[in-house]
Design a protein that fits this description.
Helix content is 3%, strand content 36%. It has 1 helix and 10 strands, in the order αββββββββββ.
Length: 119
């Protein structure tokens, strides 16, 4: 373990909702002030895989939570940019990424990890 790891700020998981509260191929939003990093979109893909990304398309800032989910990607509702939910990066030929967050699902509850800078 390095000194940087030992001094890293703790990760705080924030409970968002029950897994069943997110429709399959749908999203829920964890609302946060822009100063705290902005809203976080929490997606439920097929197979109950859950992802969380900043709810702002890297292109023009469209709300990704309102986009169409297919596979493990979401299409921005404004200009149809496709963002990979795992990496947060736009699909080629588009460029740009959104912040991704660690998600855990335990006993049917979805929680998102926010570091101290995001709280």
């Amino acid at each position: 373990m390095t000194v940087a790891t030992m001094n890293a700020p703790p990760i705080a998981f924030v409970t968002v909702c029950r897994l069943t509260d997110i429709p399959v191929l749908g999203a829920r939003v964890l609302e946060r002030a822009e100063a705290a990093g902005g809203n976080v979109a929490v997606f439920r893909a097929a197979g109950d895989r859950v992802f969380a990304v900043r709810d702002r398309c890297p292109h023009k800032g469209g709300p990704l939570s309102q986009g169409i989910v297919f596979g493990e990607r979401v299409a921005c509702p404004l200009h149809n940019w496709t963002v990979d939910l795992g990496s947060g990066c736009a699909a080629s030929p588009d460029e740009g990424c959104v912040k991704t967050y660690v998600v855990r699902v335990e006993q049917g509850m979805v929680a998102v990890a926010l570091d101290d800078g995001d709280a």
